[in-house]
Amino acid sequence: MDEASRTTLELFVEKAERLAKYVKENDARNSIVVNPGGLMGVFRNSEEEEWQVASTLDGVLVTFRMFVQPGDRIALYSLERDSQGQPKRQKPKLLDLVGLSPDWYEKVEQAYQWVDIALAIAPPNLMYNGEPITRRKILETFLYGDNVHVNATHRETFNQWRRLPDLFGELQLEFVTILGFVVGQIWEIAEACKHELGLNA
């Protein structure tokens, strides 16, 4: 393993552990529901507050974005907003790292494929203007229309969805479920990275 590969694996592990720490620390305050696949839901303990997404997840999303934006070198899956004219289904640059075990490359490829398949699904109950809404569209719209950056197109879509409270509630729940699934894949790759770093210590 060369120094660039080692540095990237260490960064991946560090940021994945930050996600895990945030979930653990906030679980006591906010009833963050977790399953083995990752973060599944966020509910405020306070009775006067409604189910929240943005305020409670801000800490997670600051770190999560690094795993979906290629500029941070640890993206497991690059979203369309950040593809910069490249194909939507671009393999993660993680697969370009050199000197790692075949098992590690297989795990990264598998995690990428699972995320790609999951994001392509349009849940049957989620429709807007007669069109199905894919999980990729939900993730991009919440991240780039409100939570991480504000892109004009995604912001307009986000505001349109927000005007329909029943649909928006379903979309919020789906957004958190998507995050949970992707975070679960991130944690799996982080474990593989730790193993790889141990092998090459």
Please specify the SSE layout and strand pairing.
Elements: H1 3-30, E1 32-35, E2 38-42, H2 54-64, H3 102-120, E3 127-128, E4 131-132, H4 135-147, H5 152-162, H6 165-199
Antiparallel strand pairs: 1-2, 3-4
Helix pairs in contact: 1-2, 1-6, 3-6, 4-5, 4-6
Strand content: 5-15%
- Radius of gyration in whole Å, from Cα? 17 Å
The shape is: elongated
For the termini, the CA-CA separation is 10 Å
| Structural class computed from helices and strand pairing | mainly alpha
Order of helices and strands: HEEHHEEHHH
Q: Determine the number of helices (DSSP H or I, runs of at least 4 residues).
A: 6
**Biggest sheet character:** 2 strands, antiparallel
Task: Please characterize this protein's 3D structure.
This protein is mostly helical and 201 residues long. It has one domain (3-199). The protein has six helices and four strands. The chain has helices at 3-30, 54-64, 102-120, 135-147, 152-162, 165-199, and strands at residues 32-35, 38-42, 127-128, 131-132. A hairpin with a 2-residue loop joins strand 3 and strand 4 (131-132). It starts with a helix and ends with a helix.
